[in-house]
Specification:
5 helices; four-stranded antiparallel β-sheet; alpha+beta; extended
Length: about 170
């Protein structure tokens, strides 16, 4: 029995050494391994969407977004505090949307062709960006995204909340 275990251990060590050599030498092997590891570490949808967003919702994003919005409206009804929505979602690893870089091109100016550049946001778009939280998950080839957008009044009471779900694959 001990001899059998040693043979298995030796075979495993040889396979791991060969795999390590492939990863070191082959960029495509590194890519495949990275995708595989990303798939293993996929956290899945956030708690607020578990059981609401399922694999069967792919690619029925509009219908899934309606389901998600209903859950959000139940959890954060009109009149709820904006801070409660933000803290609940950030505790579930939702993140703010990054602003465009400071060297962005103003919205009223054309973007030059052939140059990588970013269009600045209008004041309305900037206000919406500040009231949007995003959660992304997926493994390897596909990424799923949930966005939550809300509006509030001058007392920071919610007046509207909406969720959207979409996904894309390489």
């Amino acid at each position: 029995m001990k001899r059998y275990a040693l043979w298995l251990l030796a075979i495993f060590a040889i396979l791991m050494a060969a795999l390590s050599g492939l990863l070191f030498l082959s960029p495509s092997a590194r890519l495949v391994t990275g995708i595989f590891i990303a798939g293993l570490s996929d956290p899945g949808p956030p708690p607020i969407a578990q059981g609401v967003i399922t694999e069967s919702d792919w690619p029925h994003f509009e219908a899934a977004s309606i389901k998600l919005t209903k859950v959000l409206e139940t959890k954060f009804p009109a009149g709820s505090k904006e801070d409660f929505l933000k803290s609940t979602l950030t505790d579930q690893h939702f993140r703010t949307v990054d602003p465009p870089p400071s060297d962005c091109i103003p919205p009223d100016q054309p973007v030059p062709a052939g140059v990588v550049s970013y269009q600045c946001l209008t004041s309305k778009q900037e206000e919406e960006r500040k009231r949007t939280l995003v959660y992304k998950w997926g493994g390897g080839f596909c990424v799923n995204t949930i966005s939550v957008v809300w509006s509030s009044d001058e007392t920071n009471a919610l007046t509207h909340v909406e969720g959207s779900y979409y996904g894309r694959c390489l």
